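Q: Predict the assembly, please.
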Amino acid sequence: MKTDRSDILACLRSSEDYVSGQQLCDRLGVSRTAVWKVIKQLKEEGYLIESVPSRGYRLVESPADVYSKSEIASRLHTKWAGQNLIFFESTGSTNPDAKRFAEEGAPHGTTVVADRQTAGRGRRGRSWESPAGSSIYFTVVIRPTFAPEKASMITLVMALSVAEAIHAATGLETGIKWPNDIVVNGKKVVGILTEMSMTPEMNEIQFLVAGVGVNVNHSGPEDFPEEIRQTATSLRIESGRRIDRAALLEQILARFEADYEIFERSCSLSELKTRYESRLVGRDTTVRVLDPAGEYTGISRGITETGELAVEKETGETVLVYAGEVSVRGLYGYV
Ligand code: ATP
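A: Predicted assembly structure:
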């Protein structure tokens, strides 16, 4: 469900050469005036578009880090992830928005994106700092065919897709702190919150929403509130350069679509486990498991095909830790 704007941008972006006004009209089934109006608007927004009377239009340069529905949609090459795209300049939190759209029948892959959240959330009712202009906040609606007990694995699938997309876009080494955080140089850059809605009979999943927050272009630690300055960082702080959010989001959605389809084949992490574990932070080291039923330490030995963390206690016994209520820490700090 792309708009004319994103279609026109996509056509211009995919062509090295000029695209004539007539070609745009034919391809998109809109009038010359409509094309002209969109081009004018795009130019006003800072897109550098050459118009040559007998040849047509050519996109010379996009403005840096434009973050809008058209910019994101024009980049997508996915089948379902993000194809139904909803963009808010500001919203409370993209997870409840996505749930609302899902309740109203939004299709699998519907994605809600916001430039700012006023009530961003983490697990167990914690908050997620969500300023404008510097981060990616999005939530994907998933309509699974699998049983509810498999749902928590989606967090791990998403973590893998996001960690690999960031690595590809920035060259940064991304680690996954089981189950749902991504860290760079020991600090958190991404949080993921997956939520599930059950059918009224409570025996099947109605839909899942997987929400992601990525700290992208914060320029220094002072951009984070005092309480998280020691544990949070951004891709720009770590890589030393500004990152184009729309391009990164496109990469994340493309990878998530592919990884989700791999996951769906077996409804397990069997084919993704090796990749996930290669990024698992604290593997084969001592970790502290903050279980509400009692804290304990042990050696993290990797994950199971169903997404639990295997922790070997001093007694030699291996405990399988379920994601739900638990946080894991390094022995001396956050990782
Ligand atoms: P952990 O495993 O670290 O205990 P969690 O996975 O339970 O964390 P999340 O729900 O992912 O935590 O994230 C919420 C926490 O992340 C907050 O309590 C806060 O400490 C921290 N936080 C909040 N906003 C940000 C942000 N923008 N970047 C990094 N960390 C943040």
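The radius of gyration is 22 Å. The pocket of adenosine-5'-triphosphate is lined by residues 122-123, 126, 128-129, 180-181, 188, 191, 213, 215, 228, 232, 327 (CB under 6 Å).
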